[in-house]
Design a protein that fits this description.
heterodimer, A: mainly alpha, ABC transporter involved in vitamin B12 uptake, BtuC, 2 strands, B: Rossmann fold, Rossmann fold, 6-stranded mixed beta sheet, globular
Chain lengths: ~325, ~250
């Protein structure tokens, strides 16, 4: 695909995304809002997978960001936007502490630590009075921008698009920078990366901390529309759920994979609502079927089966090597 | 003065004594081979030098500096390049990209410049590309520079492994079984290249099992058996050393 076509498609996609709220019913917009949040979680997981770390603590930092925004707005009467930044910084600092404690004992310990944190965070948010207990923080004021309150599904949707696009741009930039090349090397062959002078620990730490920041941002956005931070949202199973997005959507495609996966896995249950209590089972079956029949993930399948087919149809000479989108 | 000195180095993994009380010196500009039966601890010695494993005892001095306990990326940055026994490559990348990653640490334009994509960052990148292509040509991989590493035949993959180690502009190059699995033609070519690398002023430590190659190309040999040095000296001396012969043949008898 030539660059011009790629840019053209992106422009069309952008326009489509902007007018979407007018094209679909409000319920679908609601689902899209949730999809955006889950996409950001998925992006963060794929981000850490790049350096060979399947993080189990996704929901924990998502929760940190959410609670930071909720509590700062509620108790310190802060404006929404600074809380996003502060939540991100807190996530980075705490993540840094965990990293220095766990890493000298090996990355396995670090991952296990993450698992423990993810499991414990729900308990901490629920039990500690300061966080408001199991019923949550209580209703949080809506976010405002230049004295305009952001309310209503379309506006929240646009807010989400804003965060998602920023997330994508930053990740895209990082992936194509020197840091990204070092990360690729680390994910590809740990030993070899070290032997060419790449400080594996340092680069992994950068990856984890940046991931934490954007997870917290996703948490802040989540509060913007759910308007309350409740412990049960940030469960350990949410951390595991995120991995499904990657497996279904795209493992090698760190940017588009999570998006596609989140889209599919969020929308399928919504359209299966009619099945009522059987819905989770059907969703699970569909997901499993996808994994069995498209084991390389949907985008991976496109890359390997469909792209070469198109290349053969075209005027030839185009490299069919699929680059991570 | 020796370029690399191992003083009384030991390494155990729990109860397993992999290396015991090793005194090992490599002189500047020589091709020094480390040989011994399988399991003698040769690759472990490499891993101790690069810092992949911490030493249990002893010191390692490189160029006058104590490098014991440094991390692999730190020893690499000090000029110790190393190829691996297995084939470790960045499989999904082209041959050229594999080397460019190797230049990662020697081509620093500075993080800020890199961020802003300034002209100086671009210039350094071009210089790296030039050097990378030079190495690729030198190792006979010129025609394959855009091929994906995973698609190369075995012999070329081994050559690429050596190229990546060269990309770090090492003073000391440690090659772990570079010709294993190569056919006779490839072996002769690789040996010739090893000589030419030495002629460029790079000191080489070689682990190899192919005796013909070892005896042919080495200036000095060190023989390990069960983690201990049992002999050291010129190829002619080692060839006729009783203990060495027993170490290799004695194994088979058991």
């Amino acid at each position: 695909m030539s660059k011009a076509i790629k840019i053209g498609l992106l422009v069309v996609l952008a326009i489509l995304l902007v007018v979407l709220p007018w094209l679909v019913n409000p319920y679908t917009v609601q689902v899209l809002i949730m999809t955006i949040t889950y996409s950001m979680l998925g992006l963060a997981f794929a981000f850490s997978l790049k350096v060979g770390l399947p993080r189990f603590d996704i929901a924990a930092w998502w929760g940190v960001g959410g609670y930071a925004t909720a509590l700062l707005m509620l108790k310190a009467h802060m404006n929404f936007w600074p809380t996003v930044l502060i939540g991100g910084i807190i996530a980075m600092l705490v993540g840094f502490l965990i990293f220095i404690i766990a890493v000298p004992r090996g990355m396995m310990v670090f991952l296990m630590f993450g698992m423990v944190v993810a499991m414990a965070i729900q308990q901490i948010f629920g039990s500690v009075k300061f966080f408001g207990g199991w019923s949550g923080t209580g209703l949080v004021p809506r976010p405002t921008i230049f004295s305009h309150t952001i309310a209503g599904k379309p506006e929240l949707y646009y807010l989400g698009l804003f965060f998602l696009v920023v997330n994508l741009l930053v990740f895209y930039y990082l992936y194509n920078s020197k840091i990204g090349r070092a990360w690729n090397a680390i994910g590809s062959s740990l030993k070899l990366a070290g032997s060419v002078g790449i400080d594996v620990v340092k680069y992994r730490m950068a990856n984890v901390l940046i991931g934490n920041f954007f997870l917290a941002v996703a948490g802040s956005y989540y509060i913007a529309y759910s308007l309350s931070a409740v412990p049960t949202s940030f469960s350990f199973s949410a951390s595991i759920f995120v991995m499904m997005y990657i497996v279904v959507g795209g493992i090698a495609q760190s940017l588009s994979g999570p998006l596609l996966g989140a889209l599919i896995i969020t929308f399928i249950p919504e359209y299966l609502r009619v099945a009522k209590e059987y819905e989770p089972i059907i969703t699970a079956v569909i997901t499993i079927l996808i994994i069995i029949f498209v084991p390389m993930s949907i985008l991976g399948w496109l890359d390997r089966r469909v792209k070469p087919w198109f290349a053969r149809l075209g005027k030839g000479g185009e490299k069919e090597q699929g680059a991570p989108a | 003065m020796a370029l690399l000195e191992l003083k009384d180095v030991s390494k155990n993994f729990g109860k397993l004594q992999a290396v015991s009380d090793l005194d090992f010196n490599v002189n500047k500009g020589e091709i020094h081979s480390l040989i011994g039966p399988n399991g003698a601890g040769k690759t472990t010695v490499f891993n101790l030098i690069t810092g992949t494993y911490p030493v249990t005892n002893g010191r390692i001095v490189f160029n006058g500096d104590d490098i014991t306990g440094l991390q692999p990326h730190q020893t690499a940055q000090r000029g110790i390049g190393r190829s691996f026994q297995g084939t470790f490559l960045f499989m999904q990348q082209s041959v050229l990209d594999n080397l460019m990653i190797g230049f990662h640490m020697s081509c620093r334009a500075g993080v800020l410049n890199e961020f802003l994509h300034t002209r100086s960052a671009k210039k350094t990148d071009d210089e790296c590309r030039q050097k990378a292509l030079e190495i690729i040509e030198f190792m006979g991989l010129g025609a394959l520079k855009n091929e994906m590493a995973g698609n190369l035949p075995h012999g070329h993959q081994r050559a690429l492994g050596v190229s990546i180690a060269l990309a770090c502009s090492p003073t000391l190059l440690m090659l772990d079984e570079p010709v294993t699995g190569m056919n006779p033609t490839e072996t002769v070519e690789m040996v010739e290249r090893i000589r030419r690398i030495r002629d460029r002023g790079i000191t080489i430590i070689l682990i190899e099992h192919t005796m013909r190659v070892v005896m042919n190309v080495s200036d000095r040999l060190t023989v390990l058996s069960y983690g201990r040095k049992i002999a050291e000296g010129l190829p002619e001396e080692i060839r006729n050393n009783q203990e060495v012969i027993e170490a290799y043949l004695g194994r088979e008898e058991k």
